[in-house]
TrEMBL record:
It comes from Cylindrospermopsis curvispora GIHE-G1. This is Energy-coupling factor transporter transmembrane protein EcfT. CDD domains: EcfT. The chain crosses the membrane at residues 45-65, 72-90, 158-178, 297-316. It comes from the Bacteria.
């Protein structure tokens, strides 16, 4: 088992370099925030459109199949399960549903038209009421009812809303991490947070901490992988150990993992101190030179169109 390669989420794809990799990290961050905020107070059509748009971007960017198959596959399964469970769950309206219109044929029978003085037919008030009742009969709150399974309009709307939000939230963030290096992320965030320095916000310290956190994730995965392999190579008979013995073994493994991670953190701190990282503002390393190019401006223009469509067609009625 190789956690550094098989982990489905949060890894950076260094090769091949797609056009998403070449976009400025600030532009991609603004696009990510747009995906995460545009579904707020949006209708379900727009939320489904966001899911389809993420799939189209993945295919157009020509990200290798081996990379997004695992990520999108299990995420689609999760979203489908959420959709199915919430759709058949009670909608919270604890009332009994029954027809509100009378079923008497005499009341619902066609009403003749009234005639004007010149002989033309005019709809009488009774006829208008009949047509309105006929239109109301076309509306159904219960969309499906078979045995214990009942799907109402409210439960279906909630299911579509929650399942699309789960997919958009997880996959858009993962797509951003997949095509953006950790140093680019921190550089872009530091550039966008520069106005906060006037409010005495420690922007450089925050971005340095974020850089170290992102760089520390592969070390955590490596330590977990090594400990799991060490347990597997010892061929432990878990049946003889029982529940108590197995729990004791895993507690020892977790204790060893914590010790190794603290040791790695101390080694990184000592290495930074030796190299002169006494203060983030005094010793800065510029990993990337951020500069907006033509593809970045095109992405900004498409973003403006994106929000225009969101305001025009994606808002709740």
């Amino acid at each position: 088992m190789d956690l550094l390669r098989s982990l489905p989420l949060g890894l950076y794809l260094d090769a091949p370099q797609t056009w998403l990799h070449k976009l400025d990290s600030r532009v991609k961050l603004i696009w990510l925030l747009s995906f995460l905020t545009s579904y707020v107070f949006a209708n379900n059509y727009w939320r489904v459109l966001l899911v389809l748009l993420l799939m189209v971007v993945t295919l157009v960017a020509r990200i290798p199949l081996r990379v997004w198959r695992q990520q999108m596959g299990w995420l689609l399964v999760l979203s489908t399960m959420v959709l199915a469970i919430i759709a058949i769950s009670p909608d919270g309206m604890s009332i009994g549903y029954q027809p509100r219109l009378p079923t008497s044929e005499q009341v619902l029978s066609p009403v003749p038209f009234a005639k004007s003085e010149n002989g033309t037919k005019l709809p009488s008030p009774a006829r208008e009421n009949y047509e309105k009742r006929h239109e109301y009969q076309k509306y159904k709150y219960i969309l499906f009812h078979q045995g214990p399974v009942t799907i109402s309009r409210r439960s279906l709307n909630l299911a579509i809303s929650l399942s699309t939000i789960v997919f958009t939230l997880i996959y858009s963030s993962n797509l951003y991490l997949l095509t953006t290096a950790p140093e680019e992320i921190t550089s872009g965030i530091e550039s966008l947070m520069q106005p906060l320095k006037k409010l005495q916000v420690p922007v450089t310290e925050i971005t340095l901490t974020l850089t170290l956190s992102l760089r520390f994730i592969p070390l955590v995965l490596e330590e977990i992988q090594n400990l799991i392999r060490s347990v597997m190579t010892r061929a432990i008979n878990w049946k003889k150990l029982g529940l108590k013995g197995g729990t004791r073994v895993w507690l020892v493994v977790m204790e060893r993992l914590l010790e190794n991670l603290l040791l790695r953190a101390e080694q990184i701190a000592n290495a930074m101190t030796v190299r002169g990282f006494t203060s983030p503002s005094e010793h800065q390393v510029k990993w990337h030179q951020l500069q907006l190019k033509l593809p970045d401006w095109l992405a900004v223009a498409v973003l403006i169109v994106f929000w225009g469509l969101r305001i025009a067609f994606g808002s709740l009625n």
